[in-house]
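Appendix B. Raw example, untouched.
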Amino acid sequence: GARPIWPSTPFALQSYESPTWCVRPINSAIEQGVGFAWVEHCDLSDATLFFRAIPTGGGNVVLQSASDTTYCVHPWGGSVGDNVRLVWHADCTTGTAAWQVTQLAVGSQFVLQSAADSAYCVQPNGGAIAAGVRLYWHSDCSTTDSALQFIATERTASPPPLLPPWLPPSPPRPSSPPP
């Protein structure tokens, strides 16, 4: 089928089989070495849910934090392998294949595959999506296992900025005098 394309705007990674579930940094922290886990009831106002895709060529990307562009998704220790968790790392250079992912398309959804070694894909630790379950690389790229399938949900228009509390509300408009 046609390969899904990476959104050009920030996006959340949601579960295809259970779209109320999203990938979120543990404790919503965008910090060195922090991993990723599934959370239920995606709060799309939570900026830490959103990624950007930095193109590296050939359909591969590096996943970057949309709210702190210092951080990108890396395999723990720098190399993809079985039971290696995904973590934030303060390096977004695009030339290292181990940091790049590609979409293995399954219709409109996709499996996140390593660009360095196509045997490895991202999956929930233990194989099932549940609260707090972390995301790991694993040598299983089964396109029929719906627990491995993601959809990229673009952030829609951002909410209006809140007025700082010290600003008074706008004065009411004077009504126009009758003719």
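End of appendix B.
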